[in-house]
Amino acid sequence: MEINFHGEWLEVLGCGVMEQQLVNSAGAHDRIGWAFGLGLERLAMILYDIPDIRLFWSEDERFLKQFRVQDINEQVVFQPLSKYPAVINDISFWLPRENYTENDFYDLVRTIGGDLVEKVDLIDKFEHPKTHRTSHCYRITYRHMERTLSQREVGGIHQAVQEAAVRQLGVEGRF
Asked: Residue 98 is part of which domain span?
């Protein structure tokens, strides 16, 4: 079965007679097998405005995380993926003794880096055995949707993140 959606025909339900060899290998000799398939991917393409069915077979975390929601009724809007390479930089710093929250750092990075920041991950925690100070190392992934970023361009943004973290969050840089 096909439906016409915005002038294009989309197959949303398919059926047909199975290859006899498959039926025979299942032990159903002298029988006819029917196969049915519901085109859920095609319906999801319409619902989420996804341009290419092959994205559903992707293991790309950038695609998958868009559909991990706490509330099943939450509206999901697909964000296209960039075909350009990422630039990845790490930042490490000693935490202040009090009043530090990871979310403040994430917010600071996104405020400075804007849409160029694809993700921020805490990749390491270290506690100094003598001073008992704690250090965090974050990996920041930068990526532009329409062009390749240079390390020089990202370096300026990354330096602004470092300086703002020291100034606003009271951390001591290890950079």
From this structure: 87-173
Question: Does pLDDT of 8 surpass 80?
Answer: no
Q: From CA 140, how far away is CA 85, in angstroms rounded?
A: 14
Q: Cα 165 to the chain's mean position, in Å?
A: 25
Tokens found for residue 117? 């920041």
CA distances from residue 93 to 65, 129, 135, 141 in whole angstroms, order as listed: 28, 16, 5, 17
Give yes or no for residue 11 having a pLDDT over 80. Answer: no
Tell me how far apart the alpha carbons of residues 47 and 39 are, in angstroms, rounded to a whole number. 13
Q: How confident is the model at residue 41 (pLDDT cuts 50, 70, 90)?
A: confident
Question: Does some domain include residue 48?
Answer: yes
Domain boundary among 67, 95, 113: 67
Tens-digit pLDDT profile for residues 16-26: 899 999 999 99
Q: What is the 3-state secondary structure (H, E, C) of 86-113?
A: CEEEEEEEECCCCCCCHHHHHHHHHHHH
Alpha carbon distance 17, 32 (integer Å): 7
